[in-house]
Amino acid sequence: MYRVLIVDDEPWVAYGLSKLINWEELGFTVVGEAHDGLTAIALIEQNAPDVVVSDIRMPGLDGIELLEEIRKRGLDTSVIFVSGYSEFQYAQQALKLGAFDYLLKQVERGALQDTMSRLKEMLDDKRRLRAEPDSFLNDLFDLLDPDSKMTIGAFLAGKGYRFEHPHYRFISCQFPYATVTNIDQLSVTVEGIEYLSFRTGPNQTTLLVNYDESGAPITILDFITLHLSDALHIGISSRFCSSDSLSKSYQEADIALFSSLCSPDSRAVSYKDRTPAPELTGDILQLELAVKEQRATRAKDLLEAIGHSCCRQDLLIDQVTGIYNQLVSLIHKYYGSGNVTQNIEYLTYDHVARHYGSYPKLFRSLEEVFESQADMEIVLSNDQVKEIMAYIDSRYSEDLILGDVAKHFSMSVGYLSSLIKKKTGTGYSEYITGKRLQRAKELLAEPRLSVQEIVQQVGYKDYFYFNKLFKKHVGVTPSKFRKI
């Protein structure tokens, strides 16, 4: 039975909903009622319901805010809203934020039964996907490895698909809710455009689209507008043909998607080569001079300018990450003999998007280099260092960033990172990754746990990202490691 919490500021309405249908017959059980948003949050944390049926207008914490709190806590709870006719636009906003559906007052028995039946199908699909490691996704992961020589045509032929049109694009989408796709079977044709759809993360779906650019009834952008309206962020590869590299075309869409995550004004980003403007190159050269001469104020001003230039010039995230890593190289070059460089690490573009979310914020993080010298004079006792490491070790499976730890212990990020590097021999991110992967290897020895469950237990939300990370560090995918 799936667990349901009913939320309405009018107790008799909540009671009426609990008695309106035979919940058990549909596969649900009502575990409680709440009459305001704050109480609802407490009951959600206590009872972990699969579903919340909530009034959209409530005093204090309203339905939209309740949904936002659920998402902030990383809960995969499905939410159904009840609204009046006057709140129709409000309900539409809720759907964009990831609500499953909304029902108009007065709620009719048939409408509620239909909604719950559809929701049960979706929840059953989610449960099945969590319980069964996705062999198709594992195959796909291997094929999308940058070293793979697989072509688009060979991949499709190997899976038994025959597409007729000459052109292909990958489209990667991030949604505000968990995606459920029967990826081993889904081949769809819509208005002259045929596509395969597969899940590449808990909230991410990727489409391999086949079409004729000169003869399709609608354009790719029209297709996105009509059929991917729920997606928060979209990345589109350039055009390919069947003899082109599968991994290269996918990576273009991936780069474009992560670029969208760092571009608040660009919901959809198309991959195309972009050349940085001369002014940006000039700022980088000026920054090297400032770093060489240890002019901290000038260096910080240039970092700010570079971050904003990357935004204005609409650079893709892999280019921005390359510029950032170039600056890291400069810092190591000129400050290499001191502890100040120990908190500065080379990054990948997905790390930039997940942990920074904007280019100015990324470059501002380097300011710690110029502010940490004074902190280096602080001397911590062994007990204090042990306390810090124990704090990190007890929370490595949480979404704990270095800044949170530094704030907890009232020290700068630069000094804390330097301390961790001195204590462990690695940077903070590498240390956390090592702890998580070691725990994952231990859990893979437990056959009762699916790979998806292990991914979540060690602190990752994205199954596909974890696969890439695990293979990079261990040499094989988690599924193959389990068989060793």
TrEMBL record:
PTM-bearing positions, type 4-aspartylphosphate: D55
Gene Ontology terms: biological process: phosphorelay signal transduction system
Coiled-coil residue spans: none
SUPFAM superfamilies, sorted: CheY-like, Homeodomain-like
Location relative to the cell: Cytoplasm
Domain Response regulatory: 3-120
Organism superkingdom: Bacteria
SMART domains hit by this protein: HTH_ARAC, REC
Main location: cytoplasm
Family annotation (PROSITE patterns): HTH_ARAC_FAMILY_2, RESPONSE_REGULATORY
Record keywords, A-Z: Cytoplasm, DNA-binding, Phosphoprotein, Transcription, Transcription regulation, Two-component regulatory system
A Pfam short name: Response_reg
GO molecular function: DNA-binding transcription factor activity; sequence-specific DNA binding
Residue span(s) of domain HTH araC/xylS-type: 386-484
Record protein name field: Two-component system response regulator YesN
Organism annotation: Paenibacillus phyllosphaerae
